Automatic annotation (TrEMBL):
Membrane topology: Lipid-anchor; GPI-anchor
UniProt keyword Magnesium, yes or no: no
Transmembrane stretches, start-end: 148-167
UniProt record similarity statement: Belongs to the early nodulin-like (ENODL) family.
Places the protein is found: Cell membrane
A Pfam family per the record: Cu_bind_like
Stored PROSITE patterns: PHYTOCYANIN
UniProt domain Phytocyanin: residue ranges: 15-119
GO molecular function: electron transfer activity
UniProt keywords, alphabetically: Cell membrane, Disulfide bond, Glycoprotein, GPI-anchor, Lipoprotein, Membrane, Signal, Transmembrane, Transmembrane helix
A Gene Ontology cellular-component term: plasma membrane
Name of this chain's protein: Early nodulin-like protein 12
Length: 168
């Protein structure tokens, strides 16, 4: 029973994902072919995952905002504001999340991110399908964390299955 509980806990641990897949991604993109939203569209975010931003806190910040503030680049009433240069936001619910730069005019120049978070149950049902579009949801979304947790969960499942075979 304890092993089964351990398996469940391990499978539901979130991952930590570096925004944009690299440490210097939270900036105005120098290329129209690459944007943070293109990175987000290629990724799958599950409840419990965390987004991690690395940036120069003397020049920038991360604002979590409503969909309307995201679309209009309004920085005056964020849901949350992060200024530490190494920001970690846990995605605790399903749906879209909206983030913009707090630096003057950066959002208008494309420094913003939408992340759509799905529940672990839905992730298993649609694991081969493309990531959901933010337009399919209303409200904020959540982000995933590193891939190490997924590997650990798979190892626990293998141990449980193999252990069960030997007990039979």
């Amino acid at each position: 029973m304890a092993l089964l509980l351990l398996c469940f806990v391990s499978l539901t641990e979130g991952r930590e994902l570096l925004v944009g897949g690299k440490t210097d991604a939270w900036k105005i993109s120098s290329s129209e072919s690459y944007s943070l939203n293109k990175w987000s569209e290629r990724s799958r975010f599950i409840i419990g995952d965390s987004l991690v931003w690395k940036y120069d806190s003397s020049k920038d910040s991360v604002l979590e905002v409503s969909k309307r503030d995201y679309e209009t680049c309004n920085t005056s009433s964020p849901i949350a504001e992060y200024k530490d240069g190494s920001t970690k936001v846990e995605l605790q619910r399903s749906g879209p999340f909206y983030f913009i730069s707090g630096a003057h005019d950066h959002c208008q120049q494309g420094q913003k991110l939408t992340v759509v978070v799905i529940s672990p149950r839905h992730h298993k049902m649609i694991s081969g399908a493309p990531a959901p579009s933010p337009s399919q949801f209303e409200g904020p979304a959540v982000a995933p964390a590193s891939s190490a947790a997924g590997l650990g969960g798979g190892l626990v499942v293998a141990v449980v299955v193999l252990g069960g075979l030997f007990l039979m």
